[in-house]
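Take just one protein record:
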Amino acid sequence: MRCAARFRGAVALWPLLAAHVVTAFEPLSVGIAIGAVSALTGYLSYTDFFCRFAECCREKPLNASALRLDLEEKLFGQHLATEVILKALTGFRNNKHPKKPLTLSLHGWAGTGKNFVSQIVAENLHPKGLRSNFVHLFVSTLHFPHEQEIKLYQDQLQKWIRGNVSACASSVFIFDEMDKLHPGIIDAIKPFLDYYEQVDGISYRKAIFIFLSNAGGDLITKTALDFWRAGRKREEIQLKDLEPVLSVGVFNNRHSGLWHSGLIDRNLIDYFIPFLPLEYRHVKMCVRAEMQARGAAVDEDIVTKVAEEMTFFPKDEKIYSDKGCKTVQSRLDFH
């Protein structure tokens, strides 16, 4: 902010300089010049100008059309995630007085798009995305590695969230590898996710919390397989077919990070969002998208080769990629 202070000081000199310049002109010209300088000084003093050079926390309306386009063009095979995330974010950001923060829990096997979606969400909420000062990523194995330090982590987590929400009410917090998080740590933020108007003088109601977890992947796969074996399309799977099973499953799963968590017990997680296992056709979509992202022409022979190098399960049917699209980038490097 020192830069902003110096800038305001420089701006304050404008009227003095202008006064010397305009004394050579007739009174009408003097009045116009001083009026113009006053308008310029007032404009430059506002936060808008400073925010052109530094990132500012500003609550702009969510561009739902842009978010929809990003999800539909970049996320493959996840009709449920696309629908729920679009509706949840749009509804939350359009509500000027939410009663609680938006809390999303994303579940599914690795490579199905959970991290990718969190990146898309971050970019649509804050222009700098994951590089924004107002988007905060926690990785369980990196930030909370030692089980014996749970109390320390809880205190640090509370202070970190409190400080960042104080600086920006619409902060985004992403917790990756929730299935590797020691039970109990996440309950430290329960007061911030609840229906309180303020906690110690701070409102958390406009913040967004996103949990990413592999936990529940087996439950999601079972449902997807049941539909496939019954001859039904995966697009027929609805949120009601999976959300209740997911919430109970991760609550009772000691390795979910949400084991016996008060966040579930108090119904503070707004949506449990399933990410379905990806099929062969979805892997090919990922390969095409990666080739386009690299500025290369799409070569269908290479697309097929990369997709066929992936391994699929179950053993007999071989329907779903066991790594999703996670290794597409590295495999494409060999072609």
